[in-house]
Amino acid sequence: MTDCLFCRMVAGEIPADVVHETDRTLAFRDINPQAPTHVLVVPKEHHPTVVALAQADPGLLGAVVRAAGEVAVQEGLATEDGVEPGYRVVTNTGPAAGQTVHHLHLHVLGGRDLRWPPG
Ligand code: 5GP
Ligand code: ZN
């Protein structure tokens, strides 16, 4: 049994509020949302960071990014052919960025004004 939280959610061992799923990706609501929409998009396969995934399987990274876009449309953050009202996709890498779960995840955030830089 893995001790990776998101692998366990993918395996159905820990409940997840799933909003989008493909054969290779899963998206579920963050347990501690930082915006009205805060969804995490993960590859079903374990990869620790975005760069590790880009090196190991760029096609899978593309599938994760595409899933993030589909979540944004589904959540009303963008039209299929546009970017209005807009949203943010971020991924934290390492302790200085506050990465706490070492299974790559894209945060999809929206539904409020998102300041930049985020601080
Ligand atoms: P990180 O800090 O690694 O970029 O993001 C990890 C995210 O996972 C955080 O936003 C945190 O709220 C979320 N998270 C932690 N534990 C759980 C959980 O058990 N379920 C869900 N849905 N999200 C979680
Ligand atoms: Zn994992």
UniProtKB/TrEMBL annotation:
Transmembrane segments: none annotated. One of its GO terms (molecular function) is catalytic activity. Residues 5-119 form the HIT domain. It comes from the Bacteria. Pfam families: HIT (PF01230). InterPro entries: Histidine_triad_CS (IPR019808), Histidine_triad_HIT (IPR001310), HIT-like (IPR011146), HIT-like_sf (IPR036265). The active site is at 105 (tele-amp-histidine intermediate). A motif (Histidine triad motif) lies at residues 103-107. This is Histidine triad (HIT) family protein. The lineage of its organism: Bacteria, Bacillati, Actinomycetota, Actinomycetes, Geodermatophilales.
